[in-house]
Amino acid sequence: MTRRSGFQKEVLSLYRRALRMVQTKPPSTRAKFLLFVRYNFHQNATNISPRQVGVIEHLMRQGRKQIEMYEDPSVKDCWVSKEMKEWNKQRT
Predict the structure, then answer these.
(1) Tens-place pLDDT, residues 70-91
(2) 11, 24, 61, 63: which has the fewest C-beta neighbours closer than 10 Å?
(3) Where are the domains of the chain?
């Protein structure tokens, strides 16, 4: 079993929180929320070096705020871009 750094643990915790948030949304929109979460985490993981500590901290703060906003029960849907849909098609 590999040991994870503090940042890795925080990112995984945020990702799990986002996945739990997806499960609270209406079944008709869960796929869109899941795509939104997966796409954003994947893009940030592939475009940012682990040495960019300031950028990672900024994205963690931004992600927490965004998830808090989406956790609100009144939020029922999210917007998914054409780019996100194409990325999803390439993965399947």
Answers:
(1) 999 999 999 999 999 999 999 8
(2) 61
(3) 6-90
